[in-house]
Amino acid sequence: MTDRKLYPLTEDLVKTKDISVRTANCCIKTGLESLYDILIYYGNGESFRNIEGAGPKTFLELQWLCETLTSTIPNRTLPKLEEVSVQDESEMTERFNALLLDDFKKKSIENKYEQIIQTCSVSVRIWLEHVPLITFVSEYLTGPGNNNPPAEHFYTRNMREAIDLKEKLKTEITRQFYMSKEEYLKEEIYNHYGLTGCSAEYPVSYYLKYGHFPMFWILEKQLENDSERDVNALKETFRIYRNQKTISLNEFAAKYSISRERVRQIRKEVFGEIFRYKSIFFQDKNWQLYEPCSKDAIWQEDMQFYINEEQCNFSEEFILQILLIILYYDNYTLFGGLDSKLTKNSWHNTFLVKNEIVEIFDFDKFKLEFNAIQLGNKSEYLQDIQTLVAKSKCWKKSVPEARANIADIVKEILRLEFQIYPDMDGRIKISAYKRKTMSDKVYDILKNNGNPMHLSEVFAEFKRINPEHYYSDPVQLRPSLLKHESISYRNRKSIYLLKEWTHVKFGTIRSCIIEFLSKKKSPQSSKDITDYVLQYFPETNTASVRTSMFNDTQHRFVFFNNEFFGLAYKKYHPKYERTENSLMPFAQRVSCLEKFIVENEHFPFASSKNRDERILGVWWVRVSKGVYIIDEGQQKEIKRVKTQYANYDSNKRAFQWNKNYRKIKSFILENHKLPSISSERFLYHWYGRLKTDFLENNLNEKQRQKYIELTELIDATE
Which of 20-29, 79-88, 453-462, 541-550 shows the lowest mean pLDDT across its residues? Predict the structure, then answer.
């Protein structure tokens, strides 16, 4: 084997530590770019002292290298091997040649050869990476006089390893020679896709029938087996499965305790990784075996073939978008489809149209044009599709011969997007338009959704359906929502729903309290009232319920001793004594305080910039320090609040410290590393100050304990 390409490069000899970096640089500068060049230079009687920049160390390194490689086999101590008969070698050659005749088996043995090489030491691997499988088999494995690998290509210290490699390859050739096609396929499925057992049976039978693996089916199984958060962002927020109910970014963020912005970033990254043109995700050659279609337009219905043929549950638009990446990218344009940028998408369906047709006719513009025709129509009439296309203002350039093809595509668009079907003569009925009010439109949005929606979600859907509408802010839709008699709100938090729904409660917490008290003949305790309200508003609490009654500006509630409440218009038994001051200033203050603590996770600060918090904070400081004179019952109430909310911060500095601690802990859990000065500058410096405070004993006992927990968490993630 004298081909110089089969010898390592000079720079590779540095990796095997046979020569130093300085020696390698001297050789390369002189033109000795590979070991082959160095050996030829030595064999021609040239002295390494003549190399520019070579000192004694360089000379000795190169001299030792060449003498080691050119020394004879008898002078080396080699392990003894069993004699291999000519018949055995001939049989091995036949087996190997038989494997090469089958493309699938040839690929399998080549992959195994590469895998075996990667298990070798660096010095052996650098040699063998230059030796193709066929060369190794013919010259090392089955060639004449090949009991040992040629001495000029392996150092003495690597000879045992090279011989072991021969034996491994012989064993592998024999194993694969006797393997059945099914066994080959199962091994391939496991090695490349990680599927075993029953999961491998279907791909094997599919391959034997069609000559390639069912890649959509395999991809579905891989996604099912992958439960990582980033992959779940793709599976749960995009409609990649048929009959799938996707969740919003806010819902996903709540599920994984991260921000909505972080979800958007993850979703965009995963989407880009998968659907980028010529993505590595689809580099598997089995994808390329799918036959590209030559139709002018490809519709979601055309994808039903793959769904039925491969028994997968992917949505038609997801399959169509995958095929666009692997087969059609240079020839077709995508309309509709999945979108990671959350931009407005006016198409309800996904389809592909040939680029040469898209360059002639603007289908996006046609959809808007036809929508305008419908909105402006005052009387019903029939319209020929061919005439409709010919008169359209969506032509980018005049190509009369393309009119028939474009009319066929337009006919499908009218059917799928507008649910308009032509008659036997190719005419469509354009009905007289009955204008819907804005309230009717938002009612339809809520009814189609089937669940309560936030004002921003209603607005997003409204703009998706009506991208041309001039509304630019969700607040502009609120009057239309409040005006419709069938639409109500939920708890005054911009959540809207239909009154006809029975699975959710509309109205506010206060209206829910009134409903409960109106059914009772006697006043009710705050606990019983809260238990009822929690059935419909699980996010509330007792403090919020009490505050809601105290703050009612219409004075619809009356208050009794022992924390009982009733309605002002009802008459109750005289045994229930009303309090002298029905507004109960102190109790109201306490309720507001508890509500603030629960919602903000800290006591109100007297130094806050927020006026309401500042007033409440000043009151709490004065009451807790005895500045205000209160009776014995009120003192017990103050003591109860202190005990019940003892774990909440009452000091602004302590609250900020704990807030920063939670931020850095969340960052480490999410990113598995400490914040860096480039990405999280504030947290980086804060952690530095925290470490200094710990070493200088400037932390209290709770803070010291939290710092220790943080260091243990950091150690666990490394």
Answer: 79-88
**Cβ atoms within 10 Å, residue 627:** 10
| 367 lies in some domain | yes
Please enumerate in sequence order all residues whose Cβ is within 8 A of that of 573, keeping only pairs 6 or more positions apart, or say none.
522
Dihedral Cα 573, 578, 582, 587, nearest 10 deg: -120
HEC letters along 158-178: HHHHHHHHHHHHHHHHHHHHH
* 23 found inside a domain: yes
Given 23, 44, 70, which residue is the final one in a domain?
70
Domain presence at residue 509:
no
Q: Are residues 229 and 328 in the same domain?
A: yes
Q: In the predicted model, is pLDDT for residue 318 greater than 70?
A: yes
Q: How far, in Å, CA of 594 to CA of 604, rounded?
A: 10
Determine the Cα–Cα distance for residues 554 and 457; give it in Å rounded to an integer. 32
Closest Cα partner for 209 from 184, 229, 175, 182? 182
> Would you place residue 363 in the very low, low, confident or very high pLDDT band (cuts 50, 70, 90)?
very high
- Distance CA(61)–CA(32), nearest Å, equals 14
Q: CA-CA distance, 60 to 52, in Å (whole number)?
A: 15
How does pLDDT run across 266-301, given as a tens digit for each residue? 888 888 777 776 666 677 777 877 888 888 999 988
Percent of the chain exceeding pLDDT 70 equals 83
487 token code pair: 């639409």
Looking at the chain, the whole-number percentage of residues with pLDDT higher than 90 is 6
Half-sphere CA count of 452, side-chain side, radius 13 A = 19
Is 590 within a domain? Answer: yes
Is residue 45 located within the same domain as residue 129?
no
* 229/251 Cα distance (integer angstroms): 14
CATH number of residue 463's parent domain: 1.10.10
Pair 250, 330 in one domain:
yes
Domains: count for the chain: 7
Q: What is the mean pLDDT of the chain?
A: 78
pTM above threshold 0.85: no
Radius of gyration, alpha carbons of the chain: 39
Q: Write out the residue range of the structural domain in which residue 17 sits.
A: 4-70
* Statement to judge: residues 223 and 345 lie in one domain: yes
Task: For residues 553 and 634, state if they share a domain.
Answer: yes
